[in-house]
From TrEMBL:
Gene3D superfamilies for the chain: 3.40.50.360
Protein name per Swiss-Prot or TrEMBL: Flavodoxin-like fold domain-containing protein
InterPro entries hit by this protein: Flavodoxin_fold, Flavoprotein-like_sf, NAD(P)H_dehydrogenase_qn
Stored PANTHER family: NAD P H OXIDOREDUCTASE-RELATED (PTHR10204), NAD(P)H DEHYDROGENASE [QUINONE] 1 ISOFORM 1 (PTHR10204:SF34)
GO CC terms of this entry: cytosol
């Protein structure tokens, strides 16, 4: 089994140690996820968007290529081939202003492209392995407030607006809320006990 992890955090996936202003709870969760997956004999393929210097902005030429079903550049073509060969896709990012950061949005815009990863007319995915989609996020907003007051906009955009629309039905969200208010010991316990 193969898993592609798309990691989006400015400090990158290497920021798992407790170093102030250079640490990411998400990176610590990533480390735990990789340990778990490897223990299950799962091949892990990391796409670290910031480490890869991914450009999320869609230029006029990018859009012209996208409309013709042509990969925008070699990096995008590589990402697309890796997604076509996977059994599971895990997105990891912080929730900012109630949705995904620009890198993740740009990844979806540029990589999950018509005629390459889905058919434009039928909206049928070309990911023939029907990969499981898992999303792991962190946010400052309390979970109850995010779901019941803001209406969980991320789930509407990702699950309903992207994956369900293209017939990828296996979707699960793991949200970590207000971890910045927890003690180091509480955060470590959350990391150690997390299971996909």
């Amino acid at each position: 089994m193969k898993t592609v992890i798309i990691f989006d955090h400015p400090y990158t996936s290497t920021a798992s140690e407790n170093v102030p202003h250079q640490r990411s709870f998400l990176a610590a969760i990533y480390k735990q996820v990789v340990t778990q997956l490897k223990a299950e004999n799962t091949e892990v393929d990391l796409i670290d968007l910031h480490a890869d210097h991914f450009d999320p902005v869609m230029s006029a030429q990018d859009l012209a290529n996208w409309r013709r079903g042509v990969p925008i550049n070699d990096q995008i073509a590589d990402y697309q081939q890796r997604l076509l060969a996977t059994d599971q896709i895990i997105f990891m990012f912080p929730i900012w202003w109630e949705v995904m950061p620009a890198m993740t949005k740009g990844f979806l815009d540029k990589v999950y492209a018509k005629e390459t990863l889905y058919e434009a007319g039928s909206m049928q995915t070309k990911l023939t392995r029907q990969p499981k989609i898992k999303v792991i996020t962190t946010m400052s907003t309390p979970t109850w407030l995010y779901r019941w007051v803001f209406g969980a906009p991320l789930l509407k955009a990702l699950f309903r607006g992207t994956f369900l629309k293209t017939r990828l039905f296996h979707f699960k969200w793991y949200g970590f809320s207000q971890v910045e208010k927890k003690s180091l010991e509480q955060r470590q316990r959350l990391i150690q006990t997390f299971k996909l």
